[in-house]
Structure to design on (405 residues):
């Protein structure tokens, strides 16, 4: 069960396993408080108790505590000078690799995400929104800020191919990337081939930049008469530190005058400058993901382990203070996941107007959430004009749509 459920139900009758999970959760939370108070010896003693009860193969709470107690220990070692220069160098290499795992067009990552409902549900809702806003357009140009394997555009192509009137003359896809140009070009070739099978004319372009915030308007080749749509899938939160980076990207996008910009983000409040608060926020959110992985990948231990090790690795790098940008050149890569109302405030600062997600987008999301039996704890609901995808009532991912005033 998720971490917040465990800690919130301590007064209700619990099974023996649930009682042990509550005790283990409380040990880790107490250790975090000791670190916040700089009582490192006390924190180490509590973490040793966690070691005796946590396990990478146990229930979701045991697995979560296994990874996060290890991350917290690295934080203690860092604060007390027990991490040497060699360890820090190795950790920086690992942080760079983790960034690549998160952002690359990796088949392995997509196969992992395909087993969880949040990514699929949000993707279908987002693409449905784009489909509606390019309705009637004959020349369509989509700008993707994090294309990965590009599967999302096959959904768009299938929708465009079913048009009975206003047949599409040309579909262009421009991918902006910071690494792995060859892999993304392979993605482009696959998409063009798929489009041909749908009797669509499709062109694919790649723009390589050192950093997404350095994207320039003169790099974007848009023709007059094209209807432009933008997709930012799990990328905005990498641009908020400092805030000027997001500002720079939005200014470039505004100049190409898109009819819609769809933004999907992990839904959570992991933005506190206070370490203890940030750790607890991250821990509670990770518990939801661990719980979903346990239920959706119960018979596929290798995939569950891949996801949990990746989350645990990210936590470890943050604890050691080594999360850097993908270039490994010392600039901070901050993980600043925020709730949808905070994103609204961000985008409104840029003169953007939130667009209403349609009933059709909601319907597509609900259909996808119901398509796999083990996804039954996944639910979708509206938050104002936006769509939220959750697990057992906890928000996990948001989909918002924006126009430029």
């Amino acid at each position: 069960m998720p971490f917040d459920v465990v800690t919130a139900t301590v007064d209700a009758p619990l099974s023996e396993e649930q009682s042990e999970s509550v005790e283990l959760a409380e040990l880790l939370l107490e250790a975090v408080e000791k670190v916040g108070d700089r009582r490192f010896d006390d924190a180490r003693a509590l973490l040793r108790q966690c070691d005796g009860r946590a396990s990478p193969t146990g229930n979701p709470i045991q697995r979560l505590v296994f990874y996060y107690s290890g991350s917290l220990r690295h934080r203690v070692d860092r604060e007390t000078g027990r991490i040497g220069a060699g360890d820090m160098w190795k950790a920086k290499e690992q942080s760079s690799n983790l960034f690549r795992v998160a952002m690359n067009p990796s088949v392995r990552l997509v196969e992992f995400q395909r087993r969880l409902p949040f990514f699929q549900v949000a993707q279908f809702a987002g693409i449905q929104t784009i489909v509606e806003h390019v309705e009637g357009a004959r020349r369509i140009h989509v700008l993707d800020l994090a294309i990965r394997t590009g599967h999302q555009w096959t959904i768009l192509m299938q929708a465009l191919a079913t048009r009975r009137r206003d047949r599409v003359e040309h579909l262009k896809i421009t991918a902006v990337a910071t690494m792995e140009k060859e892999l993304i070009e392979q993605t482009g070739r696959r998409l063009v081939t798929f489009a041909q099978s749908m009797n669509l004319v499709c062109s694919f372009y790649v723009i390589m930049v050192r950093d997404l915030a350095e994207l320039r308007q003169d790099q974007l080749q848009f023709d007059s008469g094209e209807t432009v749509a933008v997709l930012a899938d799990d990328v905005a939160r990498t641009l908020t530190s400092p805030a000027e980076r997001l500002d720079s990207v939005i200014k470039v996008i505004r100049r190409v005058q898109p009819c819609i910009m769809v933004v999907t983000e992990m839904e959570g409040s992991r933005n506190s400058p206070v370490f203890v608060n940030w750790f607890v926020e991250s821990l509670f959110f990770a518990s939801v993901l661990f719980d979903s992985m346990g239920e959706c990948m119960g018979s596929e231990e290798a995939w569950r382990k891949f996801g949990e090790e990746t989350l645990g690795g990210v936590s470890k790098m943050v604890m050691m203070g080594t999360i850097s940008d993908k270039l490994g050149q010392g600039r901070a890569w901050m993980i600043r996941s925020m709730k949808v109302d905070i994103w609204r405030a961000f985008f409104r600062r840029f003169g953007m107007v939130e667009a209403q997600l349609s009933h059709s987008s909601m319907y597509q999301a609900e259909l996808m959430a119901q398509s796999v039996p083990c996804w039954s704890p996944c639910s979708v609901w509206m938050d104002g004009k936006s769509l939220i995808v959750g697990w057992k009532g906890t928000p996990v991912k948001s989909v918002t749509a924006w126009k430029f005033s």
Summary: Residues 278 and 285 are 11 Å apart (CA to CA). Confidence is low (pLDDT under 50) at residues 322-334. The radius of gyration is 22 Å. Strands lie at 139-144, 170-177, 202-208, 227-233, 260-266, 352-355, 378-383, 386-391, 394-404.
